[in-house]
Every structure is written in structure tokens, then in C-alpha cells.
Write a structure and sequence with these properties.
The complex is a heterodimer of chains A (249) and B (260). With 249 residues, chain A is mainly α. Chain A contains 13 helices and no strands. Chain A starts with a helix and ends with a helix. Chain B contains nine helices and ten strands. Classes of the chains: A mainly alpha (249), B alpha/beta (260).
Chain lengths: 249, 260
Amino acid sequence: MLFHDTALIYGRYLRQSLRSRFALLFGVLMPLLYLLFFGPLLTDLPLGGKGSSWQLLVPGLLLQLGLFGASFAGFTIIIEKGQGVVERMRVTPVSRLALLLGRVLRDATVFVFQAVLLVLAAVVMGLRAPLAGVLIGFVFVALLTASLAALSYALAMRVETPQGFGPTINALTMPSMLLSGLMLPMTLGPAWLDVLSHLMPFRYLVDAVRDAYVGSYATAHMLYGSIVAVALTILAVTVGTRVFRTAGA
Amino acid sequence: MAIISTAGLARTFQTKRGPVEAVSGIDLAVHEGEILGFLGPNGAGKTTTLRMLTTLLAPSGGAATVAGHDLATDPGGVRRACGYVAQSGGVDTQITVREELVTQGRLYRLDRARAAERAEELARDLDLTELLDRKCAALSGGQRRRLDIAMALTHRPKVLFLDEPTTGLDPRSRAGLWDLVRRLRDEHGTTVFLTTHYLDEADALADRLVVVDRGVVVAEGTPAALKLEYGGSADASLQDTFLAITGRGATPADTAPVAV
């Protein structure tokens, strides 16, 4: 039943995403602008590490795409709460967990699709990276977006208004992006900043994807990144499930 | 035979300013096949009670059974046995009537073919056939309400909960909706539990009324019995009766009803 219900909810929301093609493409715009207008600034700079500046920047932009996109996923549920759609579904026998998982899987699908577009654009700009590494990057995008979307939905089920939701998410995403070294590697900065950034879970993810993009798969970064990504996903889905099971929303 | 019975059903909300008792203890019995009007002033606890009976909100005290299923131990059974239409309705305005009806059927675990068939049946029953391929946003208020009810009837529930179903409808749509509710009861034996602020609606539609105030049941009976007991005579208006019950406490009407 969980599988049936999850597939049903996934289909409903995927169709919703496909209906707004503009929004589907719009999500890529911000990282694309970084790629076009920020990426060329880095090509001749000494950034440390192996590979070209593109192999360093594109993993960061992929996670930026996931971070900013998926964190705001909860907005849709606030709208649906207002329309009564959430309660209407919750009085049916549908699995509560499926109401969360169907949405989260839709988000992971949409962001991986956007990530593919971004990588294609990056290849045009000059990115060269091993295919296996690029595919590993997409797996990290999927895990990151699934986690953040689950947390975002959980928060959205608990808040009453979009006015309370938007600023909260903004206040969390901006420092997360800066402190994770998504744009430039934190190793370039002073030691205190590097230490601080290790408190950010996304730091481990971006380090892992950067390794993948230069073809180094059996590294400590890859190990820590995988552990953090999986742990984050488990934590987020657990929190989300608890909220969706109990919420009187 | 009681299809819904509650004993001391209560819900307290924790707020920043301390606990708020939205429903203090509701005891009621609803008979099978009856149209029950659930009345009370704003904030009396009507919607909270409805949300508890439909499993949307866990009670903080008391117990209830709906169609033979215990609310606390068998919420799944309750969900399969009842339909609920919230005040706000509950459709996505950007998708078509057909898609909403089919998805609803699938949520009730009908297979794809059966869900499509059921959508057609419901559309025929509720006069929505011409609208099936329109977006929900394009429906009028009355059509929207019929769609909301069609969604709630997908699984042929034994009990239908309607929260202020005619608020905001024009007189013709209201009359149409009353006919629909009567037809459901007469043809399918559906028990209808509805809240309303329109006393003419309660008078015309309900077999029996339950009046709540400050989270407890303060009066119940047929409209005629309540008028006699609280309004002073069988010819009293339900408006005066209602004010006598809720305006000055549940005392027998030894004083004249207030003029409004």
C-alpha cells in the first residue's frame, strides 16, 4: 500500500510540476547565471586541488541548486493547506508516509533534471569530467534535495503563514551556502573559516562531489560525504514522517 | 442504532498563553440514516469536533466510535467509513475536475479503470458531467461545492460530515444542495452530520439538532422540541430558540426571547 500510495502522490505532483514548465526551467536560472558570469572569473586563478576551475565550481553550483530549490519546497504545502487539499487527502485511507514520500521523490526528480541541464550548460562552457563522477554528483543532488524537501515540508506543516516560512528558510539557506564553500573551496580561506565550515553538513557533500568530478572515488571526502548525505536523508525523512503522522494540519 | 457516539470527547490546544479548551467534553449519539444539524456560535468547538470525528485531529480526552470503528484504535476504519467536506473545500484549482475525481478514487484504493468509472458516476449523480474536463478554478461556487461533495462520496461512505456546506452559496445553489443531502439520505441511507450557521437550513434539513456552546453540548432534540422547550412555543423561530439556548445559557425559556 505504501508503494501504491507513494506512486500515486508522486504522479499527482509530478504532473503538477510538468504543468508549469516555466517554473521547471526557472529553477536553473540562478546557478546558470553563476556559471555564465562567475565561472569565467575562476579559470586562471590558483584554486588548489586537481582539475580545472569548472570541476570545482560545478559541484558547488549543483548543491546550491538543490539547497535553494528544495528548502523552499514547503511553500507548496502551505498553499495546499489553505486550499484544504492537505486535509482532504488526510481523511482518506492514504498512507501518511506516502503523502510525504510522493512529494519528496517528485522534488528529487525535478532537481536532478535541473542538475542535468546545468551540467550540460557547464560542458558547453568548458567543463570536462568523468561520466561516473558526474553521475555520482546527481546521486548527491538527489539525496540532498530529498532531505531538504522533507524538512521543508515538515516545517511548512507546522507554520501557519508563508510570511513566517519564507524568512526562516532564507535565514537558514544563505549562511549554509556561504559556510559550505559552494562557490570557492574553504581551504583557500583562513583556518577559522575552514573549521567553522566543517560544522555545515553540506561542506562534506560538496567535497565529495568535487572529488567525484576529478575522478577520485576512494577518498576520505567521498566516505564522509556519503555518510553525511545518507544520515541527513534518514534524519530528514524520520522528522518528516513524525510530523506527517501526527500533524493536525 | 447509534452510528456515531462520543463520550467526553475533548480537545485542548496548547498555545503561548497557556492551554485553550476548544472542546471540553462532547457526549452525543447520532442515529443511522439521520441528518444531524450541529449548531453553535463561532468558536463553540464545532469544527474542532468535526476534525476529531474525521481523524484529522487527535482528541486529548474522551472516546468516540464512528460506524463501529473506534476513533483512537482504528482511525483507518473511520476513514474508510466516512466522507468529509471542509469549509474551504479541498481541490487543487489548477487541475481538471476529472483528474481530481480519479485521484480521489485512487486514494480510496480503486484501480485505475474503476476510479475512472467512479468519476463518471459521481459526475452524473452530482450534475458535473459537462464540467469534467474543466479546471476546478473555472467552476462557480455551487459547482465547486458539488465537486467537494462528490469527492467525499467517492467510497460511498456511511457517514458524511459537512462543515458549513452552504456558506457563500446563492439561494438556488443552497436549495439544490439541500435536495442533494436529502437524496443521499433517502436513496443511500447516508448519515449526514452537518454544521451550519443558517438556522433556516437547520430547520429545513435536519431531523435533529445538537447545539454546542463553549465546547459542550447545551441542548439537543428535534427542531420542534427545541422550539417548545427553549423558544417558549412550537411556533417560536429557531433563531429565538438558538439565542435562548446560547445567548443566556441553557435555561428553560421563562423569559421572553430577545428580539433581533
